[in-house]
Every structure is written in C-alpha cells, then in structure tokens.
Amino acid sequence: MQNAIFNFFDSESGAVTVDWVVLTAAIVGIAIAVPTLILPNLLPVASGVQPALDAAPGLGARLITGN
Fold this sequence. Notes:
By secondary structure, the protein is an all-alpha fold. It has one domain (2-65). The protein has helices at residues 2-10, 15-47, 49-55, 59-65. Helix 3 packs across helix 4. The chain starts with a helix and ends with a helix.
C-alpha cells in the first residue's frame, strides 16, 4: 500500500495537462481583466476624437468622417 502511494506521487504523467490548464486559465483571466481595466479610461479619450477630427482641416479628416 505504501509503495502504491509513493508511485502515485512520483508519477508525472498528468503534469503536462495540469500545466496547460493553469496556463489556459491564466490567459483567460488576463483576457477578461485587461478590457475591464482599460475600457473605463479609454471611453473619455475616445469621445474626444470626433471633435478633433471635425476641427482638423484637410483630406484626411474628410475621409475618416465621411464629410
């Protein structure tokens, strides 16, 4: 019985699967956290882009705004 327990703890056959699960969970967590942290600060900046484009002279502003 004691030998079976030691063999279980020495086995590394599932280690790669555990690594992939942990890495995937970390990537999903980061993919959820980054937009949550960035979006509130991005919206005020993005709202200032349209007036700047309207005030900008030249062909570039007309192409972007469609006016």
